[in-house]
């Protein structure tokens, strides 16, 4: 499906799941070089920035949140830049690009500013807003981390380890998608300088700063999750140790009581205490004294 915005001779075409016929139509309309038309006809999965004559070609992976599976997936965005046009091609929905396209389509003032001269302003605006969207995604991840941190020290920790593991995978997928942007920017900056002029190079410096901020925030979230994961394991280990300790103490306390009861239950001719007045309570008293003695011993050894 091809969607178009055109003003003042400048054009942005967003192609979502383009058919072979639509790819051929774009190649003829914009006189795309054969390497570019072949690349945009299928997903590539290899981020890069290239120049083909008067055309710039970029492949950017973007982390997109899957609301059904509740984690980020990497989705490819192909960008072709000509002097008077911008092509964006993607075979899976990318919410940020679709929202940016829709905003420009409805905001006439913004459209007149971006479509004033050539396609460079559109590219810079789209790229910058896509990074803003990624920053908001990191804010959502941080809120999830904060909720886990609040719950990890509460009594109710059921299924928390699963949430931590899923969030660790989420931030890993996010980082894996965004990291190649650094390489693409390094390749694209000299190309942009010679093709789009010095003004866009200044914009690239701004984009690079936002990219570094995204990477630092993602690394911070990743480190926070690692600490929470280790903390959860330490708390669970301590809880398990306490449980084992309690059962061990119970076993140590019940063993001598069982031994005493067994001894007095032996059917012999001569049994001490058995047969005396109040013999039952005497035996119970002995058991109580043994228990208290063992508890005092455990306390002195700081086992309880």
Automatic annotation (TrEMBL):
Stored InterPro entries: CorA_cytoplasmic_dom, CorA_TM1_TM2, MgTranspt_CorA/ZnTranspt_ZntB
Major location category of this protein: membrane
Lineage of source species: Bacteria, Candidatus Giovannoniibacteriota
The family this protein is said to belong to: Belongs to the CorA metal ion transporter (MIT) (TC 1.A.35) family.
Pfam family, one: CorA
Database matches in Gene3D superfamilies: CorA soluble domain-like (3.30.460.20), Magnesium transport protein CorA, transmembrane region (1.20.58.340)
Coiled-coil residues: 131-158
Key word Cytoplasm present: no
Protein's name according to its UniProt entry: Magnesium transport protein CorA
Membrane topology designation: Multi-pass membrane protein
Stretch forming the signal peptide: none
Localisation per UniProt entry: Cell membrane
Organism this protein belongs to: Candidatus Giovannonibacteria bacterium RIFCSPLOWO2_12_FULL_44_15
KW Transmembrane helix (keyword) present: yes
UniProt xrefs under SUPFAM superfamilies: CorA soluble domain-like (SSF143865), Magnesium transport protein CorA, transmembrane region (SSF144083)
